[in-house]
Amino acid sequence: MGLEELLAALERDAVEEAESIRSAARAEAERIVSQAKEALQSRHEARLRSLEVGLRRELEMALTAARRAARRRVLEAKWRAIGKILEAVKDKVPRVLENPQWRAVLIQDCLDSLEVLAGRPGKISATPALVEDIKAALEGRSEIEVIADAGVGTGFRIESADGALEVDGTLEKRLEREREGLAIEIGRLMAER
Question: What angle do CA 154, 158, 163 make, to 5 degrees?
């Protein structure tokens, strides 16, 4: 083997080794690029999942807020309707005195309410239409003064002479005290329809 053949063999070996190194480098580069693409894809998918979770959370919060706002508007509308119903009832309260049975109930309530005075002197301020009936029902109880007062409302107010005790037996006051309970009941009835 001559020098030229040796040089040619060395050159061939060098070219083959260079090609082998290039192929290995190309394969390594493709592997690195592939891993980088996979890592990038994985990070991209993780970011999308994170964004999706965040957006779902925001959507659920927005839906919850919208549901609450809608429910609040419905409740406010019902409360306004209940208020109108109670105002209509309040406007009709004075007509209760036209019914003899209700008049009798109010007179009896007045007599029962006098028990808080326990025999002490006091006064009853009453709707003018009830004054004569109350006086007749008291039958000689001189410690109780009965006064007609159109401003008292529909019913009566009892007050001890010293001002320490007071009973408001007006239908308007009773309606006011029962407002929340009536509102709940009216709301329940409205929900059934």
Answer: 135
